[in-house]
């Protein structure tokens, strides 16, 4: 009786170990995957983080959170079918939307009724939320957790 429970436990542990190894391996290969589009390379995360930590991750990969410069690039964002951070935040001091490279927002793709939260004192960040539609942006608190998209120059 005890022996059989012991053996079951050993099998369970071996199974969990193999599963962990498998997940680590697949996650690693996924992390190495960058996708070409236009003149940029894009990386989509496989985990969720708050906006600031997402940006840190991009910078460690020699990139930054994605800056959407064109309608084509905006449409490309929808192809990932995930709620993702983009490199856009609203700063209460300036009351303006800023891209991570310091440029101001000119061409925007807000979802219906958005942005609706930027009057709060907190810094507000932007996610791709309504990814089936071209106007897919939503403003949301930066400490929420999301997948994220990094962009770097393909050259
Ligand atoms: Ca871009
Ligand atoms: Ca919102």
TrEMBL record:
Q: Where is the C-type lectin domain?
A: 37-151
Which GO terms label this protein's molecular function in UniProt?
carbohydrate binding
**InterPro entries reported for this sequence:** C-type_lectin-like, C-type_lectin-like/link_sf, C-type_lectin/snaclec_domain, C-type_lectin_CS, CD209-like_CTLD, CTDL_fold
Say yes or no: keyword Iron present.
Answer: no
Which residue ranges run through the membrane? 6-24
The record, for SMART domains, names: CLECT
Organism from which the protein derives: Oryzias sinensis
Q: Which Pfam families match?
A: Lectin_C
Q: Which domain of life is it from?
A: Eukaryota
Record key words, sorted: Disulfide bond, Lectin, Membrane, Transmembrane, Transmembrane helix
Q: Could you identify this protein by its name?
A: C-type lectin domain-containing protein
């Amino acid at each position: 009786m005890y022996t059989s429970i012991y053996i079951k436990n050993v099998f369970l542990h071996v199974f969990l170990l193999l599963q962990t190894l498998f997940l680590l391996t697949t996650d690693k290969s996924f992390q190495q995957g960058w996708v070409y589009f236009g003149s940029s390379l894009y990386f989509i995360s496989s985990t969720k983080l708050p906006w600031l930590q997402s940006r840190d991750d991009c910078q460690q990969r020699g990139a930054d959170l994605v800056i959407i410069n064109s309608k084509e690039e905006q449409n490309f964002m929808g192809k990932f079918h995930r709620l993702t951070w983009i490199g856009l935040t609203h700063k209460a001091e300036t009351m303006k939307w800023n891209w991570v490279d310091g440029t101001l927002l000119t061409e925007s793709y807000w979802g219906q009724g958005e942005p609706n939260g930027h009057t709060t004192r907190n810094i507000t960040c932007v996610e791709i939320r309504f990814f089936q539609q071209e106007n897919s942006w939503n403003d949301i608190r930066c400490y929420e957790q999301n997948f994220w998209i990094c962009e770097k120059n393909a050259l």
